[in-house]
Known about the structure:
By secondary structure, the protein is of the alpha+beta class. It contains 3 helices and 6 strands. Strand 2 and strand 3 form a beta hairpin.
Amino acid sequence: xxxxxxxxxxxxxxxYLIAVFSGDDLIIVIFGGDRPHIxxxxxxxxxxTEEERKKERGGVVLNTISLPGHKxxxxxxxxxxxxxxxxxxxxxxxxxxxxxxxxxxxxxxxLMNSERLTDAFLNASKxxxxxxx
Length: 133
C-alpha cells in the first residue's frame, strides 16, 4: 500500500491531500479551512458497461454524495473526474473544506489550491513524474 501526503496554500485556504492506493483503486481525502469535515464524496471510474459509456463524463462515470448545504462537491467531483481520467482507475474522493465567512477571493484561492494539489498528486503518482496540466 502506498500513501501520498501533500499540501498547498497557506493560512485559511491551505488544503491537505492524503491519497491511499488500495490495490488497483485509489482513495483521496482533501480537507482544510477552519473546520475540516466530510462534506461530499465523489467516485469516478472508467465506464464498465455500455449503459455507463452513454452516461460518461469526460471519459469517466461520476457519482457524488453531498451533505445538505455543503458545496464541497465542486472540489470532490473535479478531483475524482480528473484523476480517474488520467490514471484510468477507480477513484473515491472525500472532501471537507470549511472557511467561516469565506470571501470570494478565499473561495477562488481554495479552488486554485485544489487544482494545484490535483496536479501535484498526479505528478507524484505517475512513475515517470511527467504529468502536465
